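Operator note (shift B, R.M.): manual run for TRASH domain-containing protein requested after the automated queue skipped it. Running by hand, logging everything below so the morning shift can see what happened. Input copied straight from the record, untouched. If output looks odd, do not overwrite the archive copy; leave it for review.
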Amino acid sequence: MRVDKCWFCSSSVYPGHGITFVRNDASVFKFCRSKCHKNFKMKRNPRKVRWTKAYRKLAGKELAEDATFDLERRRNRPEKYDREVVAKTLKAMQRVDDIRTRRQERFYEKRMQKTKGEKQAADRVQLEKEIHLVKAPKSLTKDKDKLRVAAEERQANDAMQE
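Run finished. Output pasted below as returned.
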């Protein structure tokens, strides 16, 4: 069974599914669903449409280069059937799939780690601006009074030292 890739979004197209478009120059385009076919007919660039795999790779949201991708390449060499080879191939395919998922998870975690600090800083700034929504008004005035008194004491100490 040959599982093809959608020309537009790079998802899997199983036999009997999707749309096959053949141009006058005999180039064949496979599409997984009508959404991809319509976008192709509208001459949209898959690298600029946010939901496609090409966009996600270009924007750095998914792994772009990995050794496991080379194993997925399409090969048109016919192989002689051998039960042992088929069993080994299936085991290897599962192992490669496990490795790929672990690498993708690691890539995602590393990508999210960078934004975590930025998000915390933005949350802190927002909390400082809108503290009146969290604390009661009386406690805010007490805090302001304490800060004012501490500032006055610091000024007095600085003046005495000079």
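Quick read of the result: The chain has two domains: 1-62, 64-71+80-137. Helices lie at 34-41, 53-58, 67-71, 83-129, 137-161.
Leaving this for review. - R.M.
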